Amino acid sequence: SEAGHEFWEKGVYCTRKVETARQYARAQNVFGDGMYHRVILEVLFNPRAVRCERERGGNQIVLPSDAVSLQGVRFLPNCPPEKGEERLDGWSDELEAISPGCPRPGRVSPEEPPEAGQPCKVSFHPKTPGSGAHELPAMALPALLPPPLAPSCSAEGRAEELAAAVLESVDWGSPLRSEGGRDAPRGGSALREGSSAPHEGGSAGPGRAQEGG
Questions:
Q1: What's the pTM value of the predicted model, to 2 decimals?
Q2: Torsion angle, alpha carbons of 159, 163, 166, 170, to 10
Q3: With b meaning 16 or more CB within 10 Å and e meaning fewer, what string describes 63-82?
Q4: CB–CB of 196/3 below 8 Å?
Q5: Across 30-136, where does the E strand assignment appear?
Q6: Where are the residues of the annotated region Disordered (predicted)?
Q7: Exposed, middle or buried, 123 (CB in 10 Å: 0-12/13-18/19+)?
Q8: Pairing mode, if any, of strands 189-193 and 12-15?
Q9: What tens digit of pLDDT does each residue of 117-152 get?
């Protein structure tokens, strides 16, 4: 993959600022209905593995791919491009990432029901073991992923140290507000892995930790 435009460093480009991640996520007409959406990937990362830091351009960092753990996908509906900002006017199924051994899903349309024999499904995922009383509010994300603990640590001690590291890494400032009035999650969204880091004003969002959807 190519190197980034300022860092000249290969890796996953991330930021703690939601607005920066939003600008780097390409606005895309996903369903062909004229409405543009953006996708941001939310990750945890190992702070000791940071290769480069940049205060200009929205506070960005570069990490190796094995130091980043995908935690969630933020879908920003009705988020059109600003004047002069790049956009994607269509969706190419051939470019969609599919897990090895899995069939390619059918095209999704907000105006059409699921295909026969393909009902909508809702999946629930259990909480991370060991979170317990140390569970953090959603607005506190992303928390930093601390380095592995010594093998000699007990399960309880490992969970306590992990929780302590998470709490210390969180920015507890006032929550950001989205246009809709809801609290927006705090930074930590991967912007790009490998390919050239985009210039300010907009670039491929997750397609990658783009990656943009």
A1: 0.47
A2: 170
A3: bbeebbeebeebebeebebe
A4: yes
A5: 38-45, 52-54, 60-63, 68-76, 87-88
A6: 98-135, 169-213
A7: exposed
A8: antiparallel
A9: 665 555 544 544 443 333 333 433 343 333 443 443
